[in-house]
Specification:
Layout (H helix, E strand, L loop, with lengths): L1 E5 L7 E7 L5 E8 L2 H17 L6 E3 L5 H15 L10 E2 L20 H15 L15 E3 L2 E7 L2 H10 L11 H4 L29 H4 L3 E6 L2 E5 L5 H10 L6
Parallel strand pairs: 3-4, 4-5
Antiparallel strand pairs: 1-2, 2-3, 6-7, 7-8, 8-9
């Protein structure tokens, strides 16, 4: 059995996969967490329900540092630090830009821009509790297995993470000069297009997003008993396509 939960995160992302693994244990994978309010509005109750069942979140994937993806995790960590919540997450996948893997971490939590500040807080908590991944989460033709769930990481590649690390080497750097207007607010589309079938979209003149933070997204293909789901976050399509081809997929 596999169930998919899509949480109300406005224009942010917050999902949970629940499945019964090969061990017959119920497993949970959290993929992103929306904005700070997403934790207060929906995730806190969901986490409490999981804990009451004596279960845990076996893997939390924070795709990238934009606050419509990791804001809820910031709220969750603040609740843990204030003794208002318990940590039920046993493993985290996160690529914080200021981390040099294998080296001591010295976080400066005074960033002006909200997203990198949230990244610093989350990374600092994970580092203090020995929960940071030992190595960056990168695209790889070899899958990761979680009790029968196969996970192929499709993005990011090491090149993008190296550029991001260079960008954030200065602890005072802002994410984007107009982040508060273009990223941090939940802005809905004026003209919704959900009713238009995919085959009717026109992609002529389309240009790939070049935002570095988006390019640092952890994107995946999860496979479980014949159910394959792509989790793309805001990853660059060219990187995802290259990774899919590397593991044997084609346009057909």
């Amino acid at each position: 059995m596999i169930r998919l939960f899509c949480f109300n995160a406005g224009c942010g992302d917050a999902f949970r996969i629940e499945f019964i693994g090969n061990s017959r244990v119920t497993r949970h994978i959290l993929i992103d967490s929306g904005y700070e309010r997403t934790y207060r509005n929906v995730l806190a109750a969901d986490f409490e329900m999981i804990a009451k069942k004596g279960q845990q979140i076996d893997l939390c994937i924070a795709s990238h540092i934009h606050d419509d993806h990791i804001g809820g995790l910031k709220s969750y960590i603040n609740a843990i630090l204030a003794n208002r919540a318990n940590n039920i997450i046993t493993q985290w996948w996160f690529n914080p830009p200021r981390v040099s893997y294998g080296l001591p971490v010295n976080f400066v939590l005074n960033s002006v821009a909200q997203s990198i500040g949230q990244s610093d807080l989350i990374a600092g908590y994970l580092n203090d509790n020995n929960l940071l991944p030992k190595n960056p989460i990168l695209n790889n033709i070899e899958p990761y297995f979680l009790d029968g769930m196969e996970i192929h990481v499709l993005s990011p590649n090491s090149h993008i993470l190296d550029i991001l690390a260079d960008k954030y080497r200065d602890p005072k750097i802002a994410l984007e000069t107009i982040e508060d207007k273009t990223i941090s607010h939940a802005i809905g589309s004026k003209n919704r297009d959900y009713h238009i079938p995919l085959e009717e979209f026109t992609f002529s003149g389309w240009k790939e997003d070049r935002n570095l933070e988006n390019g640092g997204s952890i994107a995946m293909l999860t496979s479980f008993r014949g159910k394959n789901i792509l989790w793309l976050a805001d990853a660059h399509p060219s990187v995802v396509i290259s990774s899919l081809k590397a593991i044997g997929y084609s346009e057909s």
